[in-house]
Amino acid sequence: MFQQLDAPAKDPILSLTVAYREDAREDKLDLGIGVYRDSQGHTPVMQAVRSAALTLADQQDSKGYVGLAGNERFNDLMSQFLLAGTSALARSATIQTPGASGALRMLGELIAYAKPNATVWISRPSYVNHQPVMEACGLEVREYPYFDPDTKLVNEAAMLESLRQLGPDDVLLLHGCCHNPTGADISMATWQAIADLAEQQGFVPFVDLAYQGFGDNLDADAAGLRLLAERLPEVLVAVSCSKNFGLYRERTGAAIVIGATQADALRGKGHMQRIARATYTMPPDHGAAIVAMILENDALKQQWLDELQAMQARIQRLRQQLVAEFRSASDSHRFDYFAEHRGMFSVTGLSAEQTQQLSAEQGVYVVGGGRVNVAGLSEDRIGKLVSAFLAVGA
Ligand code: LMR
User: Distance from the CA of 128 to the center of ligand 1, in angstroms?
Assistant: First the structure.
């Protein structure tokens, strides 16, 4: 059965982790997969998470099954947290998923069931997993213009112009904040314009919110989503707790359906539960139980907010330091865009050849297209990144 199989394509992000691990050079630098590292180069367990996990270990008295929608307390807390202050909260329904990738898949399958001919529009470029997941659901995927390689910012005019062709059979996938891979986000005026277009043309926005709290702050990072949720009858949301709770390997996320009525949203939830049953049955509990405990305990929640805010502030400082070191080493301002971007990543526009040279000759690993994980840097390695970039002609 397996003899005639072709070689599978390698995942562009996860394969880098393997290549980095196999590199014997001591001063190598991994700026591939999106994980936050502290100044010692370590991805820490957040203190609030550690405390909640210890309490959980002490108090949990059963490992019995939870249910197809996962932890319903987590689901309620997540939707309240995200949709606070919007009328959409009362017409939403949520399932817990294995990470946001699981949420993307469940929501993609729901779209395919509700509207088999739907086209999902993704930004050019977008998160490397968006297209594979949507295509695995049997959906057609098309791209809208997004990133301007010259300014390293979003070409919002071109984006909005392209969205004018979308109609009721289209789903528009947007990054809630901290666009992956580019780091370039749309303005509130553009969120507003998207809401206007969706109202007029009937397409459904689908917001992937994987980095809330890493951009400016928790509220600002959810402002675009909240605006759409308030104004539009239908919005889909994939949420990740991987980064802002540092729960990466626990695979903790949520899929939220906002419908014109609560009954519509609940029908969507019911179908996602049916689809989950045929996929993984129910999500792993541990991460969601930790998040729920943090969100409903004032002291733990404050500790988590402080830790998250400290990570966000440090990423911003790393960005400023990058700009300063690039300015002095290149005697130019051409790397100033690092400070304009938000969240973990920046796309630098390195060619495939330069990216290859960067790993082969300099031991610096970045994702194809030149995506750098700024949040994976430590202060004392910025010089290494700067000299490696200039050595490959960036
Ligand atoms: C990334 O883009 O590096 C992360 O979102 C990890 C992933 O799941 O691909």
Answer: 8
Q: Is the pTM of this model over 0.90?
A: yes
User: CA triplet 319, 320, 326: central angle to 5 degrees?
Assistant: 90
Tell me the best of 10, 11, 13, 344 to mutate to test the pocket of ligand 1, counting ligand atoms within 8 Å of each CB and taking the most.
13
Helix axes 156-163, 188-201, angle to 10 degrees: 10
Per-residue pLDDT tens digits for 4-55: 999 999 988 999 999 999 999 999 999 999 999 999 999 999 999 999 999 9
Distance 35 CA to ligand 1 centre (A): 8
Q: Which residues contact 241 (CB under 8 A, 6 or more apart)?
A: 247, 250, 252, 253, 254, 287, 288, 291
Which residues does a 6 A CB cutoff place in the pocket of ligand 1?
13, 33-34, 101, 127, 129, 180
Q: What is the DSSP letter of 345?
A: E
Q: What is the DSSP string of 77-106?
A: HHHHHHHTTSGGGGGEEEEEEEHHHHHHHH
Give the tens place of pLDDT for each residue, 80-135.
Answer: 999 988 999 999 999 999 999 999 999 999 999 999 999 999 999 999 999 999 99
Burial class (CB in 10 A: 0-12, 13-18, 19+), 340: middle
Backbone φ/ψ region at 253: left (φ over 0), alpha (ψ -120 to 50), beta: beta
Alpha helices per DSSP H over 98-163: 99-114, 130-136, 156-163
Query: Which domains are present in the chain?
Result: 7-45+300-391 (3.90.1150.10), 65-296 (3.40.640.10)
Residue nearest to atom 2 of ligand 1 (CA): 34
